Each structure stands twice: as structure tokens, then as C-alpha cells.
Amino acid sequence: MTVTSVHDPSHREALWELEDAFERGDLVSVFGRCTVSYEGRAASDLGAGDRLLVLKPDGAALVHTDEGRQPVNWQPPGSEHHAAVREGRLRVRSTRDNPDETLTVRFERVHQLSAMAVTGGRDLELHGSEEDLRTRILERPDLVETGFEPRETERPSSAGPMDIFGVDADDTPVVVELKRRRVGPDAVGQLARYVRALKEELGVDDESDAEDAPAVRGILVAPSVTDRAAERLADRRFDHVALEPTPAE
Amino acid sequence: MTVTSVHDPSHREALWELEDAFERGDLVSVFGRCTVSYEGRAASDLGAGDRLLVLKPDGAALVHTDEGRQPVNWQPPGSEHHAAVREGRLRVRSTRDNPDETLTVRFERVHQLSAMAVTGGRDLELHGSEEDLRTRILERPDLVETGFEPRETERPSSAGPMDIFGVDADDTPVVVELKRRRVGPDAVGQLARYVRALKEELGVDDESDAEDAPAVRGILVAPSVTDRAAERLADRRFDHVALEPTPAE
DNA sequence: AGATAGATGTCGTCT
DNA sequence: AGACGACGTCTATCT
């Protein structure tokens, strides 16, 4: 059998089951009334309440309430789970180094504990990412602009790698920044850094950087931009090309 | 009793339990072998395997494998859960509008299904946040610099609200940007936008913005900065003050 | 509803 | 191990 499960166990019973599950490398879920405290990158305390504790064999720990996509407390993979009975109660502790942090869950009562040996696919096939957008442009550069010629992807610069580097119909260098969804001002800042770095690298002076024909162009490719982002694009004389990661149906 | 739990139920049994749990507003966990597909902001497919499905009464749905802090698939709060038996199998679907997205989990087999009525504390007391850092500085402005005087927090500007606005010992305006942990170049860009906005607002011309005494100063308060961030700070003639959100023990 | 910035963000990738 | 940027980021706050 792949699943073990106990209903309303004593704290000591719960401890045995937990230790066995850790030993087997099971994925564990514990329903119960507990308090939670965390100390590490920050520090937090959570009063008594019913929660779901998930313990993974890779060291991840998650404490979920009845609300939210995010766990109310957690510990990243690579941590170590320890269970014990202290003062007559089940205590589960998950710790890691670098940074030093500890998550402690103290159960007043355990309602349900289940453990399962996990097998099977872990590989997610995801479509619609920034990489899809890059592929799309490399296959059809004219989607960016007539005459646009990609020269390099992930081109290094002193400001980090730029998404796509190329030239336009006039052979002017072009830095393309890709975003898979609507963007705010931060993306323009990122593009500006790459353009500035490339200008420095090419030794462009302010003279040759004419009002109507910049020496290095910046193009932000994204489905859409916020008003503030549009302002900043105009300030910097960058262009925006509206494009989705995947063709509209 | 607050918890209901079934072991190796038939798909139809599982369906009844799920519908009851939705009705009661329970927090639900399902262990089983399933395939998962998502369609919405992106699209993804996940082949058969053992996973833990968590369904929350607020509409959140999480699919967890045995690895990682993040669910391999999910649906945010506000979604609607629907369960059905299709082709002899339990199918759980979670949908929402704006954006339109759907998560579908098809179970080949349900190993364990538990549901719990959740009561009790949801309020987390968290320490060590950016707000703690702000409080710390407002109580002891000299931690930033001798003579520093905070005047306003969240002061509005055309580039958005700045964390702390104040003046230094020479009555020069100071924009303070707070970060709770080590920062990269992006934080400097953010600070630069606020400083530029304030200069424009105050009508500072390049004349009065002397080499050694800027008309508006920028200070980045963070535990530490990366090399690249330090360069960009130097370029802009901004200062860095090393400070933690909470005093070191 | 959209916009903006924080987060114990997490996660992959590259140096 | 640190740095950097993407993410179906999520989440709170403000307009």
C-alpha cells in the first residue's frame, strides 16, 4: 500500500507515523490545531488555529490556512524535518543553514495525518513564456519591425545579458527587451541600462546621438505597457512593439 | 467531528465527499494519481503521477509534487471549484474570470481524501520587514546620518511615493529608499527615479547641482548592496547606509 | 479594475 | 556561493 493515514492519533502515535514517513521519503500532510513560529530571514508568530502542514521529502515545509495561495509560514527545500513530543505535544521543526532559519509547528491536537510515497511525472510542459516570445521573434523578425535583423540572444554587456541584440533596416544597433505580459516602469529601466551599456561599449558620444536618429535604439516587446511605462519609453526615445508570447487564436 | 477522511474511495464516493466539503467550506486535501492541465495566462500540461491537491474554501487550489516550495500548478483565491465524475474518473476543475483561467485535475485514482473545518487565528505577527526598518529610522534618524531629519513618509512624487523624504544637516533635500535586505541595481534605479522627480518638482537646474553638493541627495538604506549596485550608486552620487530592519542581537 | 512596489518572495542559470 | 532576472509570480495598497 502506498498511503498510510491515521485519524485523531495521540501525539505519540503521530510522532511514530511521522518518523516512519520521513524514513520512507513520503510526502506528508497533517491537519491539526497548532501554533507556528519562524525565525530566520525575518521572524514571525502565529497563534493557535486549525491548519494544514505539508512536509516534503526534499525538505520543503508548508503551513496553510483556509485562505490564500501562499502558505502562511514555510521552509524552503533543503531543510531538515524533525519531529518530537515536547510537553505532551507533537512538535515538528524544520531547519536549514545559510541562511539559518527555523520553522516550528506545535500541535495542540492532530486531527489527521497522511503520508504517501510519490512516484511519477514531475516535468511540467509550459507554454506562453518569455522564451516562447523570443522563439517567435527569431522565426519572424518582421513582427518587431520591417527590416529588423536579430544578431545575438543573451548578448553580454556590462549591465548584464540583453534579450535580443540586432540591427534595424538602417543598420542601427537595436537592443530588444522581451516581456511576456503587460509591463510597468521597471522594464523600461532595465532596457535603458542595456542601451546605455551598449552606447558606452560602442563609444557613442552625445554628438552622434541625434534627436531623431539615436545611435543605439531600444525596443520593448510586450503585450502592452502601463501609462507610466509609456512616458518613460517616450522620454528615452524607445519604441514599444505590442506582441504576445503566443499567436492569438 | 471536524474532520472527515476517506481512504481509497471510489471516484463516486470521492465526489460526494468533495461536494459535501465544498458545501461546508472545508479545507480539503486529496492524495492521488492524476494528470493536470492549465489554460489561462499561459498553458501547461503535466503527465500522470502522485500528487497532493489542496482546495481552499476561498477558491485557491494547489497541486503539490514531492519537490519544491511552489505548487507545480495552482489557481489563485477567488476561483470556483467544481467536482465531477467523467469517464469513470474524478475530475476537479477550478476556474476564474479576469483573467480567464482554468485548472483541471483528472484523477486516475484517489488514495486519500480529507476535509477539515478550519477555525482560529489567521493573523501572522511578522518582524523584520521594510516597515520595521522605517520605524527604526524614524525613531533614530541619526542611524542614517548625523543631522538627518525625516519630514515625510510615502511622500508622493510623479515617480510614485518615496519611502522617506527629509533634509540633511545642511538642509539639503534627501530621498531615502529602504530595502530590508541586500539589493541589486534595480533599487538604485528606483531611488534615481524619485530623486529625478523631486529635482524636476523643485526646479533644480544643472547649475545649482554642483559636483560635490547635489541639490537633492539620494540615500539607499539596506543591509548591503551588490558590486553593480555600488557602481550605480557611485555614478549617481548616491550614498549607501548599511542598516538591518532589526537591531543585531 | 488598473497600477505600483514589497516579499522570509521562489526558482533557474551563469559566473 | 553570489548575482541577476523571470515568474501563470502573489499580495497589499492606493487611485
From TrEMBL, chains A, B:
Key words, A-Z: Cytoplasm, DNA-binding, Endonuclease, Hydrolase, Nuclease
What is the E.C. number? 3.1.-.-
GO MF terms held by the record: DNA binding; single-stranded DNA endodeoxyribonuclease activity
Q: Where in the cell is it found?
A: Cytoplasm
Main localization of the protein described in the UniProt heading: cytoplasm
Endonuclease NucS N-terminal PH-like domain boundaries: 27-117
InterPro entries linked = Endonuclease_NucS, NucS_C, NucS_N, NucS_N_sf, tRNA_endonuc-like_dom_sf
Q: Name one GO cellular component term.
A: cytoplasm
Domain Endonuclease NucS C-terminal, by residue range, is 129-245
Query: Which Gene3D superfamilies does the record associate with it?
Result: 2.70.180.20, 3.40.1350.10
What is this protein for, i.e. what is its function? Cleaves both 3' and 5' ssDNA extremities of branched DNA structures.
Say which family it is in: Belongs to the NucS endonuclease family.
Q: Can you name this protein?
A: Endonuclease NucS
Q: Specify the species.
A: Halorubrum trapanicum
